Amino acid sequence: MFALYTVLVYKGPDHVGTEPPDARVLAGMQQWQEQNCQSCHQFYGLGGYMGPDLTNVTARRSEQLIRTFIRYGTGRMPAHDLTETEIDELVVFLRWVNASGSSQVPDSAVHWTGTYILER
Predict the structure, then answer these.
(1) 79 by DSSP, 3-state: which?
(2) Residue 30 CB coordination number (10 Å)
(3) In this structure, what is the dihedral angle of CA atoms 62, 63, 69, 75, given to the nearest 10 degrees?
(4) Could you give the angle at the alpha carbon of 56 between the alpha carbons of 83 and 32, nearest 5°?
(5) What confidence score (pLDDT) does residue 14 get?
(6) How many H-runs (helices) and E-runs (strands) does the chain carry?
(7) Which domains occur in the chain, in start order?
(8) What is the pTM of this model?
């Protein structure tokens, strides 16, 4: 029963989401994991708290700026020694994540530990 429910929830006709990931998205996801990006960054508020949530970064920043941040780093973000192809794949992955939805949590609702502050 659990398996059937899982299939219906994640693969059913009413599933809201993006197209299944292609090879470049999967390669970018692998770069995300190998570079340990989730230790500092979040998707949908889940992940590290040192860097910003990158769920919708491709909607907010130009591709060239994203590439520059990845290649040379910024303040607390280290530079990454990646090939142009690897950076391309990472940007494709970030675009795919951006298309999956929106993560707009106001700064005032985020605790310094990275958790959300619930209004009462």
Answers:
(1) coil
(2) 14
(3) 10
(4) 35
(5) 46
(6) 5, 2
(7) 35-120 (1.10.760.10)
(8) 0.70
